[in-house]
Amino acid sequence: MAARTGRQFQRYNKDHRLVVGCIPYRYKKGREEEDELEVLVISSKKSQAMMFPKGGWEVDESVEEAASRESLEEAGVLGNIQCELGKWVFKSKSGELYHEGHMFPLLVTQQLDLWPEQTARRRQWMSVAEAKAACEQWWMKEALDILVNRLILKRGI
């Protein structure tokens, strides 16, 4: 499988480019009752900045399909997409454009040894605290907080 490239088929909401991402997560020993939450972060293609997988939402896919595709292409993981964490509007790196970002949790069921962007990115499992410190994008940090709070409520802690 090759990663999709180009922006000719990407969705826009007025002037905002629509981007979709995931927070891949797992429990260290596989059992949520007894273990610590870990999230997977990846490096940017252009720098060593760490972030969660995200990219353009294309016209031929649902928002969930786009989120799953980005996690596969950029981080080499498959799993179960869960209920959307939220939507954020943020400036592009250049500061000239706005993006509308949608984030989803992805409970990882499989980590691949080979994936489309493995030569361009580094991936690393981290604790929530480590990921919050490493991730530079404010909106991704907010999405991570929402995920953690949702999982705490689910467990009844």
Tell me the layout of helices and strands.
Blueprint: E1 12-13, E2 16-27, E3 37-43, E4 50-51, E5 54-56, H1 63-75, E6 77-81, E7 86-91, E8 98-111, E9 123-127, H2 128-134, H3 138-155
Would you mind describing this structure in some detail?
- It contains 3 helices and 9 strands.
- It has helices at about 65-75, 130-135, 140-155; strands spanning about 10-15, 15-25, 35-45, 50, 55, 75-80, 85-90, 100-110, 125.
- Strands 1, 2, 3, 4, 5, 6, 7, 8 and 9 form a 9-stranded mixed β-sheet that branches.
For this structure, the quaternary state is single chain
Low-confidence stretches: none
- Integer-rounded radius of gyration: 15 Å
* H-E order: EEEEEHEEEEHH
Indicate the overall shape.
Answer: globular
Largest sheet: 9 strands, mixed
Mean pLDDT: 88
How many helices? The count is: 3
List its salient traits:
157 residues; alpha+beta; globular
Short description:
By secondary structure, the chain is an alpha+beta fold. The protein has helices spanning 63-75, 128-134, 138-155, and strands spanning 12-13, 16-27, 37-43, 50-51, 54-56, 77-81, 86-91, 98-111, 123-127.
